[in-house]
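User: Structure with zinc ion, tokens only please.
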Amino acid sequence: MARRPILEMPHPRLRSPAAPVTAFDADLKRLVDDLLDTLSAEGGIGLSAPQVDDGRRVVVLDLSEDGSDRQVFVNPDVVSKTALGIVEESCLSVPGVVGNVVRATEVRVRAQDASGAPVERDLSGMEAVCLLHEIDHLDGILFVDRLSIFHKLRLRAAALARSLRGRDAA
Ligand code: ZN
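Assistant:
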């Protein structure tokens, strides 16, 4: 088990759709263990394989304070989602940005565990939101893509101001 470095935007891996897992082998088990280790080391609530530079459809969640609610979803597939809400999100791959995203807050998901056994679960609230955020990563989507146009413009203006300040300082 090991902590892996987390890729940050604009790394191209974060924009590449991940591939379905077909081999439920020792290497997949290692990936799952490393994702869980990295998630707890970072103090996050969810992490996807592309964020650690692995192109497989694997997501882990842990919304507990003490690592007691670790959930693994291999090849997750959202069967249904309802109850839209506006949630404040951030992302380990997009440091320093927080923004409001519209998400479903009740989700039924079908997936497999690390050994390939089928899993079907109903998630609600932050757990549902977090799962959808992580599944977006598997499709090359970042939460900043889902921000309102006004929020995107504000972020762009802030980045521009930072780069202008950097130029002055140089
Ligand atoms: Zn993220």
